[in-house]
Amino acid sequence: MRKTSILFVLTFLSLSVLLTSCATGSGNAVKVKSSQKKKAHSETNLNNEETEKGDVEIVEYPKAPDVQLSNILSSMTSSPQSASSADAYIHEHPEEYYELLKLVKESPMEIEEEYKRYEGSLEGKLIEKAREEIKENDLFLYVIAHGIIVKTDGSEKRELSEKEVKDVTRAFTVMKYCPHRNETIVNPISHLLMSSYDKPENIDISATIRYMGNTVLKDDKEDAEKLGEKYKDFADSAKFEELKKFENFPFKDAEKLSDVPVPIKEVFFEDVDDLLFNYMGTSLDELSGVGMEEAFYIEKYGSFFNYTSDFGMADFIANSGTIDGDTLTLYSDYATLVLKKARDMDRWYIISHMSNSREE
């Protein structure tokens, strides 16, 4: 897979990602269990049945178009900004821009009237940008922290335009800027592009978690002894000893964590489950077990563990694509990525990522 670290700019078809502030001791594969609520919600979505609205985070504004517009624009321009261009603000506030696009499309006359008092200002430029985007595109695909949203023109199967393909590619870039944390972060979609799978259940979990996790295990044997009998098993040094019980763990001969040449990171169960749930409509307990033995899951900690010293995240360089009702298919030189819509929802899911070339 091709690796990159390019920041992307949101456009009307942009597939951009906004994060919230934003993410047992044996060698046998372990069957993990996620919450019943997530499991039920996931099964409902994949069966194309109605899903509870309470599970989807929705950004809501007052109904009056003028009040909505004021709130959205204020939210987009309130934070300090190094650049004053409309594109820069759109890049840093993709979720608010999504709301602006919807408002401009749904209430064009009201927005036209309101635009007069913003004309010439940065707020006015944001409105102008939204208007231009709506005129140029028939498909709008947007990824937020809790799922993928797609708005289409409802047409029959068609090829994506060159501009649409370019915008999709920008959305799959590995790194993005998160305004809430004021730093560059990893695009969560990249974790789901680390392996090839024909359906969500067959994703390689070890590849998925390879670059996840911010908690690095450290030597703390002395501290662990002070924790007492009840808590000492939860010290990092105790976790390391549990990892050495896996037959395929490569650092079994290391006496302590500082002897390991690469950092060992802990990846929490909930973070992985949330990633699968939000972008694929599935959960850990629904997976077939591909890569589980290499994911080093320890049940009593509720955590996976990985070890990497490099940074090899995946992107997706689309060169063409099609939209056909509730299915969006994207093609690159090395893989095909398919997203599908859940019934009666704006939410879409990644359902396959296959390393094969497009058939002509």
If you had to describe this structure to a student in words, what would you say it looks like?
The chain has 360 residues and is an alpha+beta fold. It is 30% helix and 16% strand. It is built from eleven helices and twelve strands. It has helices spanning 36-46, 65-77, 86-92, 94-106, 108-115, 122-136, 162-171, 205-208, 221-226, 236-243, 269-280; strands at residues 140-144, 147-151, 158-159, 175-178, 183-186, 215-216, 264-268, 303-307, 320-324, 327-331, 336-341, 347-354. The strands form three sheets. A seven-stranded antiparallel beta sheet has the order 1-2-12-11-10-9-3, sandwiched between helices. A hairpin with a 2-residue loop joins strand 1 and strand 2. Helix 3 crosses helix 6 (122-136). The longest helix is centred in the middle third of the chain and has 15 residues, at 122-136. The model is unreliable at 1-30 and 35-63 (pLDDT under 50).
The overall strand count is: 12
Give the helix tally.
11
Strand content: 15-25%
Gyration radius, in Å: 23 Å
Question: How would you state the average pLDDT, rounded?
Answer: 75
Listing every helix as H and every strand as E from the N terminus to the C terminus, the arrangement reads HHHHHHEEEHEEHEHHEHEEEEE
Contiguous low-pLDDT stretches (5 residues minimum) are 1-30, 35-63
| Major sheet strand order | 1-2-12-11-10-9-3
Q: What profile does the largest beta sheet have? A: 7 strands, antiparallel
Structural class, judged by helices and strands? alpha+beta
Helical fraction: 25-40%
Short description:
Helices cover about 30% and strands about 15% of the residues. With about 350 residues, it is an alpha+beta fold.
